Amino acid sequence: MASPIPSTFTPRNILLIKLRHHGDMLLTTPVINALHQRYPHATIDVLLYAETRPMLQAHPAIGEIYAIDRNWKKLGGWQRLKREMALTRQLGSRHYDVVINLADQWLSAMITRFSGAPIRIGFDFKKRRNRLWRFCHNYLVSTDDHHQLHTVEQNLAALQPLDVPVKGIRASMHYSAADQQQVQQLLAQQFDQPYLVIQPTSRWVFKCWEDEKVAAVIDQLARPDLKVVLTAAPDSQELAMIDHILSLCNSRDVVSCAGKLTLPQLAALIAQARLFIGVDSAPMHMAAALNTPCIALFGPTKLQHWRPWGDHNQVIWAGDYAPLPDPDSINTNTKQRYLAAIPVTEVVKAARSYLDE
Which of 65, 181, 217, 260 is buried most, with the most CB atoms less than 10 Å from its CB? Predict the structure, then answer.
């Protein structure tokens, strides 16, 4: 490992690498915010998976966003290698002073090594404790306490070699004025009252509550002066779930924006809501980052890692009402809804505690 980094070190160009899902990308924003606070004149670029770009595209502290297309894996070995080598050369031409690799993939490690950056920070993942991983990074941060830390805290730990202050650093979700205007126009066509947002869907069914219980919550919370807006991804399974929930509702004070919004537009919608209710998913993390009061419904998920980060949040965990399997034992393709034990009364009670403030 290299010698300690001098406290006077001031980088001009920084690259942050994270190759995961949408919610994971949002939880890297505290690292970006901490770096920008410590080095306000530095350019901070990000490398991510292409489909997660919307989570960070409006962040004012980010210079350039570079992307890896997951579809490269479907190409022949040589075609995929050509694209990865071209990306590596492109990033090398940026002459980064620091590369911070939050990822555990070998591709991210090789890009880190061949970036030419004099400071290359990575995590000392147990599964990567070998010479090649050490060759790619000259500063490795311990992961021995990661099981005790929130994902945000894990990410922020990567800043230890730079001695960047991280106390009180928040996550953030950004959207453009055009995003906000489009959402306002969409809502104006349907109502002009205050509203709350419910996102009952997830890419994984096992993270979802029962449709009948979602409908019951809607019927108890929706009223003429407080609409309920349902949201979901433009996925056929999620849209079918929303349609079923709507068919079960008696209230007329509920509307659907499911499948109609980009992620930054969804952020604009959530930012103006009185309350957000959702399951363990990216929109839940967005609500927490936007400081919108948030009720997060959890099942067999590692709460310590994935609970909403910030203030004005409340977690309702199915494990408080019935036994749950170990999160590591879950078949993610199962159709079983492990949140079923959560009572409607508890969610309504929590919602009203925010709405009646």
Answer: 217
